[in-house]
Specification:
Elements lengths: L1 E3 L5 H11 L7 E5 L6 H5 L3 E4 L5 H7 L5 E4 L8 H14 L4 E7 L11 H17 L3 E6 L6 H5 L3 H4 L1 E3 L6 E2 L4 H12 L8 E4 L5 E2 H12 L4 E3 L3 H10 L4 H15 L10 H5 L6 H9 L2
Helix pairs in contact: 1-8, 3-4, 4-5, 9-13, 10-11
This protein binds NADP nicotinamide-adenine-dinucleotide phosphate.
Length: 289
């Protein structure tokens, strides 16, 4: 039995769809915390197990008989470290055969990283897994390409400006769907025990190049402006962007400026058996008509 956590989220749900191409639905279970959100999974014949990362006993029960667990990192940043340790603890108590964890690609593992607020709980999860004695695989997922429309803003073509405090930093964005397919491949093949896979995209790209690509797609000039963090913050506040997003987007831009996501290539082509989707193709898909 393969159990996927975060199965009501984008990555977990997409991984289940790829798993269904490789193994019968009767081999797949999903951990969900809100049964109402599980209807689409039930329709596909997936067994629903209820559990919450805050509640170890609920997960110990849900993880019974699981050979392979896809542990999707949580989305509640504030208490994620504790939640991640809870998942590992429950997997250990339930004698799960193998845990595949969706971690995060990075260069800077210290608290000087602008994105330490997300990185810390991944490092904690990895440490907990290593200390647990469980068999595990680490999927060090790159920065989602799917975040680009949020970073760029819905109106980027209309305004004609890519406005990100990222300087000339490059980032090897990766499509979440490609990461889901890779996860499904790892869950349905052997030989991944103790392995750690770096999963950035294939093509590192600057926001200058993003703007040039958008210019071609839109048939009009899209400029790139890299403001200071202070000016970025002020302009986003003026535009009515919620404080939480301004802080998060500004931090990711700073991480990109520092080269945190610059490394490209990695293990994704090997896990997919093809090249991952390139940013230019993705941008065409999102902004082309
Ligand atoms: N690499 C990147 O660029 C990047 C970007 C964003 C996020 N991430 C990480 O990758 C993960 C998967 O991405 P995604 O796009 O699939 O995120 P998502 O759509 O927000 O899915 C997160 C999933 O985790 C579940 N979850 C959150 N807290 C939980 C808890 N306390 N107990 C049980 N389940 C819980 C959510 O359940 P509900 O449906 O009930 O909320 C949801 O199913 C995220 O959670 C985050 O850790 C990575």
């Amino acid at each position: 039995m393969i159990l996927v956590t975060g199965a009501t989220g984008a990555l977990g749900a997409a991984t289940i769809d790829f798993l269904l191409e490789k193994t019968p639905a009767s081999n797949i279970a999903a951990l969900v915390r809100d049964e109402a959100k599980a209807a689409p999974l039930k329709e596909k014949g997936i067994e629903i197990r209820i559990g919450n990362y805050d509640d170890v006993p609920s997960m110990v029960k849900a993880f019974q008989g699981v050979d392979k667990l896809l542990f999707v990192s949580g989305s509640e940043i504030e208490n994620r470290s504790e939640q991640h340790r809870n998942v590992v603890d429950a997997a250990k108590q339930a004698n799960v055969g193998h845990v595949v964890y969706t971690s995060f690609v990075r260069r800077n593992e210290t608290e000087t990283s602008p994105i330490t607020f997300v990185a810390k709980s991944h490092l904690d999860a990895e440490a907990a897994l290593k200390a647990s004695g469980l068999s595990y695989t680490l999927l060090k997922n790159g920065l989602y390409m799917d975040m680009l429309p949020y970073f760029l803003g819905q109106q980027v073509i209309e305004t004609g400006v890519v406005f990100q405090p990222a300087g000339d930093g490059q980032a090897a964005f990766v499509l979440r769907n490609d990461l889901a397919e890779a996860a499904a491949n790892v869950l349905t093949t052997e030989g991944h025990e103790g392995k750690s896979y770096d999963l950035p995209g294939a093509v590192p790209i600057t926001y200058s190049e993003v703007a040039a690509t958008l210019s071609k797609i839109a048939g009009k000039e899209i400029a790139y402006i890299s403001p200071t963090q202070e000016v970025y913050r002020a302009e986003m506040t003026k535009a009515g962007v919620p404080e939480m997003y301004i802080g998060m987007f500004g931090a990711f831009a700073e991480a990109i400026r520092q080269g945190e996501f610059e490394d490209a290539g990695g293990d994704l082509p090997k896990l997919l058996g093809r090249q991952p989707v390139a940013p230019a193709d993705y941008l065409k898909q999102v902004y082309g008509n």
